[in-house]
Amino acid sequence: MFKVFRLTAILEGISYLALFAVTMPLKYMADIPLPNKYVGYAHGILFIAYVILAIVFWFERKWSIKKGIVLLLASLLPFATFYVDQKYLQPAEA
């Protein structure tokens, strides 16, 4: 299950970056809205999955409040899920 959380964190970060760096410019600059719709749906599902899994692992592993807040805030900032993976998830898996 921990590998699923790590994979979700990485995919959520990738979808977030794809949404802002690729599909939103396509939508607003090239008037091609369809990719934004599908990447947006995927990102929404991955975001919800990430938040649920972060809360589950926060309580299951009895992590500190600081670590739990960092996990949750990471879902809101670009590149932050990659940081969480490097700083918290990879060492916890080892």
TrEMBL record:
DUF3817 domain residues: 3-88
Membrane topology summary: Multi-pass membrane protein
Pfam families per record: DUF3817
TM regions (residue ranges): 7-26, 38-59, 68-84
Localisation per UniProt entry: Cell membrane
Cited InterPro entries: DUF3817_TM (IPR023845)
GTP-binding in keyword set: no
Keywords: Cell membrane, Membrane, Transmembrane, Transmembrane helix
Entry keyword annotation includes Lipid metabolism: no
Major localisation: membrane
GO cellular component, one term: plasma membrane
Xref: PANTHER family: MEMBRANE PROTEIN (PTHR40077:SF2), MEMBRANE PROTEIN-RELATED (PTHR40077)
Protein name per its UniProtKB record: DUF3817 domain-containing protein
The organism of origin for this protein: Euzebyella marina
